[in-house]
TrEMBL record:
Alphabetic keyword roster: Coiled coil
Gene Ontology biological process terms from the UniProt entry: DNA transposition
Pfam family, one: HTH_Tnp_1
Chain ranges passing through the membrane: none
Protein name: Transposase
Annotated GO MF terms: DNA binding; transposase activity
Classification via SUPFAM superfamilies: Homeodomain-like (SSF46689)
Coiled-coil portions: 67-94
Gene3D superfamilies referenced in this protein's UniProt entry, alphabetically: Winged helix-like DNA-binding domain superfamily/Winged helix DNA-binding domain
Length: 108
């Protein structure tokens, strides 16, 4: 079960937009200072806001890392692999069972 989202999407978008605007208005303002200031004003934890900003930069191709779309695809593929392994185990057990039924002399 996925974790509950603490912050509504509208608040998330607004806080991120405010950080971007603050850094545009004051180019010398560090990311740390901007997220701390905006986080206090919006009620969003500064580390959470920093993570959102980092992921947005990755998704925009401005910074290296795994994009949200890639992470989602990896998660889907991992789930598919788990399901295929499970199905494979079931098929191996079934084939062993039927082989014993056909020839009881086999050591399986």
């Amino acid at each position: 079960m996925p974790a509950l989202k603490k912050y509504p999407q509208e608040l998330r978008e607004r806080a991120m937009r405010l950080v971007e605007e603050a850094r545009k208005e004051d180019p010398e303002l560090s990311m740390h200072a901007a997220v701390t200031r905006i986080g206090q004003r919006t009620g969003v934890n500064a580390d959470t806001l920093r993570g959102w900003m980092k992921q947005a930069a990755i998704d925009a191709g401005e910074r290296p890392g795994m994009s949200t779309a890639d992470a989602k695809r990896v998660k889907e593929l991992e789930a598919e692999v788990r399901e295929l392994k499970r199905a494979n185990e079931i098929l191996l057990a079934a084939s062993s069972f039927f082989a014993r039924e056909l020839d009881p002399r086999l050591p399986w």
